[in-house]
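Appendix B.2, paired examples.
Example (i):
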Amino acid sequence: MPDARFFVTAPGVSLADIVELTGAVLDGGRPDQLVETTAPLVHADGRSVAFLSDRKYRADLAATRAGAIFISARDLEAAPADSARLITPTPHAAWAQIARRLHQARMLPNQPRGSNIRLEDDVVIGPGVVVGDDVSIGAGTRIGANTVIGPGVQIGRGCDIGPNVTLGFCLMGDRVRIGPSTVIGEAGFGVTGDAGGLIDIPQLGRVILQDDVSIGANSCIDRGAWDDTVIGEGSKIDNLVQVGHNCRLGRHVILAGHTGLSGSVTIGDGAQLGGRAGVTDHHTIGRGARIAAASMVINDIPDGETWGGQPARPMRRFLRETVWLAKQASKKQGGGDD
């Protein structure tokens, strides 16, 4: 179930209503069976509706405890017999429709200060700050002018939040520093589609910032699609950095300016990424690994290795190839016209 500090969950919907809303065909289950929440296959229980849209997750399908599953006809035989099957050519889009129906993000109040705000001693709040309901701010924290803090956000002690920051769907430890105009908890980039066009996938997770994290100006840390986006203790993120949904950074990770992480990237403790490095989705960078500036990572990187290039590969290989190419170019130029 999405965190109630950030999302309001509506009463359950019946499988009959789901069929009417999505056009899916019900196979198994009872039309009056209620679905109370949405979840991925690995997190779903008997109250949940999940989906399968990518066959690489068939193992998760076999193990799921979901009460209902959106699934295409081609994958029907792999679905658990004790789950209701909702057959549709666009399982992810149908699931997104129900997720939007069941889970709504809590909204900011119509006034600058919400209700049930908990402030410890020596909190400094600058002019123009907007604070939502049920926010908690720890002792000695400073909030810069015109910052917006969404409902349910928890901020630790001794934090320094710059001006024009937006915080939402976020739990923050102590001594966290956030630079001006940074956005924490924005919806991650998730898109699917059906016959009606493209659909934004609801992003129902959170952002966890552990103690002593530092984030520079104009950076964006997206909340998880379902799981949390986590920035580990003592990690340092430069200006103009993008961290996609479901990313998990270990302790004392460094991301230099203009680094971009796609969704579901995992980075081990002490890893370092140079400026303008990019990592494609669902990859793992090992503990203590180093990525050269302007590299593009499209593979997992083992612990302790240094990689560079586009695409990134082990640094010695990258340097040998660069030297070889330079020599070939020099030979060509020195040979004159043929």
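Example (ii):
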Amino acid sequence: MKRNFTIHILCWSIVLFLPLLFFTSPNASWSQTVIWWFRSLGGPLSYMLLFYINYLWLIPRFYFNGRKTAFFAINVGLIALALGLMVEWWQMVNNWMPAGAHRPPRRGPRPPHVPMYFYNTISLILVVGLSMAVRLTQRWQHSEQARQEAEKAKAEAELSNLRNQLNPHFLLNTLNNIYALIAFDADKAQLAVDELSRLLRHVLYDNQQDFVPLYKEVAFMRNYIELMRIRVTDGVKIETDIKIADDDTTPIAPLIFISLLENAFKHGISPQGKGLIRVEMSQHNGQVTCAITNSNYPKRANDKSGSGIGLEQVSKRLELIYPDRYTWERGLRNDNTEYFSRIVINSTEV
């Protein structure tokens, strides 16, 4: 509002006082110049009156409400009234001017006549058009702002819904792992529960934030990997190459990579307890890279260890949080014996 008010004052000040430059004459005194300028104010004041009647009343009440016929009819009457006011102003000021002050400078105003009526009519029509353009632009800006706010609220609600889905999804997979571990090694199962408590602390608290420091997310993934090491056999080779400092505070969305890691352990281990899982992470100039490779052992159709919503959630979260600021490469390679997934996120604009 303050900015709009300033713009209005500035524009009308130019319209009202710019004619002073054209009425300046070397042979005229300052009082004569002011009188000649005052006589010319009938036009700008009529423009201002017509502009604000449309801007504040006619356009919102008639044009925006679909009463366009009445809007244009009223404006025809207002333009005729404005022409009459301009003539009356001219004559009124001439009557007030002292003797000898009626002669204008060479480029000064002249009494209205037929061509002048035509020019003034066109000018008044343009003023109406200008008020409509300003009002329509403001309405479009308000509509666009409301649309953006609605999209933002929708995105935040969708992201919150994804978080609510992610927590039970992650917990279910982890509990399935501990359940399988109890059957053959109770001591390892107890250690797994301890590791799970650390993971849940991150899931329940840090996951409620929009972004967490990268070192916290890396610590979470390390804990998850250690939890999985307890479960798997020696035939599963787990390699990590994490080149991220322990104090790296680069902001990252919480749990954005965990579904990739879960997927690797789900599909990267054969029924005979063999497989390869490789995790690589790095950060350079705000660009965070997470690449996970695993052996490809597709699960049977009756395998209930996961519902498959994890990767879909990753895709949705990336679109919501990092639109146009991420790449995700994934697929099979090495004769379909390996599956790779590589996400690169530019977090510098967070």
